[in-house]
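Narrative summary of target 7.
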Amino acid sequence: MKFTDGYWMVKEGTTMHHPIEVRDIRETADSVTVHAACRNVQIKGDTLNAPLLTVELSAPRKDVIRVRWTHHAGAKAAGPNFELFPEAGFAPDIASDAEALTLTSGGLSLKLSKQGPWNMSFTNYGKYATASSQKRTAYIQTKEKQAFFREQLDLGVSERIYGLGERFTPFVKNGQVVDIWNEDGGTSSEQAYKNVPFYLSSEGYGIFVNHPERVSFEIASENVSKVQFSVPGESLEYFVIGGETLKDVLSNYTALTGKPALPPAWSFGLWLTTSFTTDYDEETVNSFIQGMADRDLPLHVFHFDCFWMKEYQWCDFEWDPSVFPEPVQMLTRLKDRGLKICVWINSYIAQKSPLFAEGMEKGFLLKTPSGDVWQWDMWQAGMGLVDFTNPAAVEWYKDHLRRLVDMGVDCFKTDFGERIPTDVVYYDGSDPVKMHNYYTQLYNKAVFEVLEEKLGKNEAMLFARSATAGGQQFPVHWGGDCSATYASMAETIRGGLSLGLSGFGFWSHDISGFESTASPDIYKRWVAFGLLSSHSRLHGNESYRVPWLFDEEAVDVLRRFTKLKSALMPYLFGAAVEASTQGLPMMRAMVLEFPEDPSTHALDLQYMLGDRLLVAPIFRPDGRVQYYVPEGRWTNYLTGETVEGGKWHTEEHGYMTLPLLVAPNTLLAVGANDQKPDYDYADGITFELFELAEGVSAKAPVYTLGGELLYTAEAVRSGNRIVVTAEGAGKPWNVRLAGIAEASGVEGGQTAAGEQGLLVNAAAGSQRIVITLAE
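Modeled conformation, tokenized:
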């Protein structure tokens, strides 16, 4: 929200109160409270008739500093509040002298000037990060008598801002106005399904504004050298988050707001859906599944969209008997084919649903201030909303899901959750404005808890559309309603990369677009992008998405990339484990992996998949692609060609290839199974070695399907000698040297011909292979 009229003036009728001078400082063992006058106090009378602002400074975790501003403290503290995870027993270091107070948390320090103009600056591991200086913090009253708190933090020359949720606008947020307010706006507008009041700076720090209500950001817009954020009310709380690297900052942020759960390995396979408004029954479903099998197209999850329930009755959680008369038997037949099952739900109860009357009678639905059930006709006729602040309503909702899981359902697509009204009353008295964004957190949490309860830890996953800060704990999320165009494919990737820099580890999208039907060209290009994403789903609106409806080549493309993803699962699952433990996204903006390379800072049409694979999807019908490669000698995994880094490349590709580059000094774990994503990764695994430099150690972890580390393979080169160890390997394993055709000697294994490099099969029981390269 803008409060000024240009640089010099404020809007007519607006009053701003800034902290001018420090009046007193109170220290405890773990916090500091500062009272700041809003005018220079020269005589005692200057203390009258003016606000006194309070700022509390503390540190809930290492490398995190909390700043809380308050004007009037007497307002009733209504929830909800983001759930935070402080570090037990942690306390910052506090030092003070006549000139300044310093509060230090790990490598992050806040320095508050005691003398002269107001200044509060932050240093991150010895490097200046940002500051709030004179007339930047403000308590504001508008001509409409509304109160706001505003902060403006320094934005350096060439500094770029990222994140703020899944945003489809330009990837670099400088120059944008962003309101944190969940809306159902598709992927082609400034609205967003997943709004997160956290941003990441290219200068190596992050800011989390701890308010679930609407937070307004002005990023180099109202003041072009500042990042401004404001909230309505009498207080403002934010966290400055540091770390030695951008990855550390993201890890520290997700430590504060919650790490992503590890999705089950089967979820990384290919998903096929009924699509939305198409006609389907068990015969149609079986025709799709059999059609995939007949064409050697591995399929792993089948999803039933909305019309598995009877029209006008969403949600009643009952299979439409006119279409699916034997749902339990049908699900059994599908699961006998090795498929997992997902069904669509939302948190709305249509008036025609038998559950509406029950929910109304028991007080399980949101109410208006007059005590009536809140209803409207958007989406479902006469629908109400489940009140997830009512514990009894939560259990009621969960019981219906438990019944579906007992039938054979493995996961739920938790659609909607954005259009949440603010003129309602919640069971627990929550502030309805704060609940607008936070509602989705309670909704997804309830569904996730059912799946974890019924299926076990690391077997629970959602396919969720809406989210806010902390929502990363309940993966997976998908990008919402995109269109069947290259432009929409590009906006989709921007949204996913922004979400990844907002703490979300796993993300998907509707391959070839939800709205309309893609051309065969777009379908095939999007398939490659989709199968090189965290999660991969074929889904649409009014038409089916099976490949043979596009053309026969689409079948071949889908087969190639589905099998490729399954083979890459040992590596990809390692990236998934890292996402769950470190909070790093599987699909990473280039700046996250290469922050020291300024050429990566604005890249939003390519990404890293994990830390070793670079993916550059193709957005043109002629197959032409331009992409940037960081320093080093990279290798196209699909073609074996090497690519020199430190510059841009322009190439043309058919539908079977794209730039999928392996970073130098990579030991890539590749599995022996290209038919499914959930298999014993250690059995027959091949460690593919790429461009290993002298003295460098390349490592590849191998995990169980439960996310437990089995062992870590390592390759080290000394001159023309390469040693690969796999200590702990109890099953057959291999090594492939990419780009190297022969060796003069091998110890611990036998050589075999390989298409893209020398293949060495480890001898039985061997955990060490020594390869001497030919001179």
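The mean pLDDT is 97.
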